[in-house]
Amino acid sequence: MKAWVYSDYGGVDVLKLESNIAVPEIKEDQVLIKVVAAGLNPVDAKRRQGKFKATDSPLPTVPGYDVAGVVVKVGSAVKDFKEGDEVYANVSEKALEGPKQFGSLAEYTAVEEKLLALKPKNIDFAQAAGLPLAIETADEGLVRTEFSAGKSILVLNGAGGVGSLMIQLAKHVYGASKVAATASTGKLELVRSLGADLAIDYTKENIEDLPDKYDVVFDAIGMCDKAVKVIKEGGKVVALTGAVTPPGFRFVVTSNGDVLKKLNPYIESGKVKPVVDPKGPFPFSRVADAFSYLETNHATGKVVVYPIP
C-alpha cells in the first residue's frame, strides 16, 4: 500500500511517501479500514519531532491518529462492525504510550473495535476525520473538570481544533451557563457561531483584565500562568500545551469509541459541527504541506488530508 513514513525524527522533510508498505495484518479484536480521510493533530507533529521518543513505538512510523474510512475486513472477535461500515476513530488508545507504528496516513490501517464508532450519517469523511482525537480530548477535559449544566467556561484558542469543539460541547451537550472564548480578530464571528456567549480578541484584550471569573478554563494555547488567575475559587484549569501552573493540570487523552458513540447524536442533530480548516482538505500527495501548515499554529479547526486514494 501507499503510506507516508518517517524513519528518523525531525522536521517535515523526514516524511516520505512510500508505495510498497505492507498492509497491516489484523488481530482478532481489530478491523482493517480502507482509509478515506485522515486528520492531523499537534501531537502528530510533536511525535515526529522526537518529543516522545522514550515511549514511542519503533521507527519507521506511519503517522496519523485520526481516521475516517470503510471497514474491509473484520477480526474473528469483532461483534459490532462488518465489512462496508463507514467508521471513524482515533487509532491509538494512548496518544503517547506506544502509539500505533502504522497510523492513519496510509491507504489502510488496523484499528481495535473498542476505538471505533460508525461515522455520523450527516457529515462527510473529511469532516469525520477531523473529529476523533480533538472531540475525545474536549469531552475528557469536561469530564475531568466535573463540568455540568450551569457552570461557566473560558476556552483559550476557541477557533483551534480542540477549542472549536470544546465551545460546542460545553454549550450544547453539557449545558454551560456561559461560554467565553479567545480568538484572533478575524475568527471572533466563528467562535460566536459555535456557541460562545463572549468572544474575546486576544490581540486586543488581556484575559487577566476580564471582569468575570470562570468555573473552568480550558487552555489550548499555553497560557496556564494567566489562566489560573481567572478562575473562581475552587475552579479548574486544564492545560493542553505549555507549562502547567497549579492548580492547573494536564492529561493525555485515552481514545475510546464509546465517547464517539455518545456524541454521535449531537453531531447528527447538527448541535455539534466539525470545523475543517478552509485551506484544506489537503490531498494525500501534500501531507508534508499539511504538516507545515499545522505547525504554523494558525489553523482554524482541523487540518484534514483527503482524499486518500
TrEMBL record:
Q: Does the keyword Magnesium apply?
A: no
Residues forming the Enoyl reductase (ER) domain are 10-305
Pfam families reported in the protein's UniProt record: ADH_N, ADH_zinc_N_2
SMART domains linked: PKS_ER (SM00829)
Report keywords, A-Z. NAD, Oxidoreductase
What InterPro entries does this protein map onto? Answer: ADH-like_N (IPR013154), AOR-like (IPR044626), ER (IPR020843), GroES-like_sf (IPR011032), NAD(P)-bd_dom_sf (IPR036291), Quin_OxRdtase/zeta-crystal_CS (IPR002364)
> Has keyword Nucleotide-binding?
no
| One MF term in the entry's GO annotations | zinc ion binding
Q: Tell me the PROSITE patterns matching this sequence.
A: QOR_ZETA_CRYSTAL (PS01162)
> What PANTHER family does the entry give?
NADPH-DEPENDENT ALKENAL/ONE OXIDOREDUCTASE, CHLOROPLASTIC, NADPH-DEPENDENT ALKENAL_ONE OXIDOREDUCTASE, CHLOROPLASTIC
Q: Which family does it belong to?
A: Belongs to the zinc-containing alcohol dehydrogenase family. Quinone oxidoreductase subfamily.
Q: What is this protein called?
A: Quinone oxidoreductase-like protein
Record organism: Arabidopsis thaliana
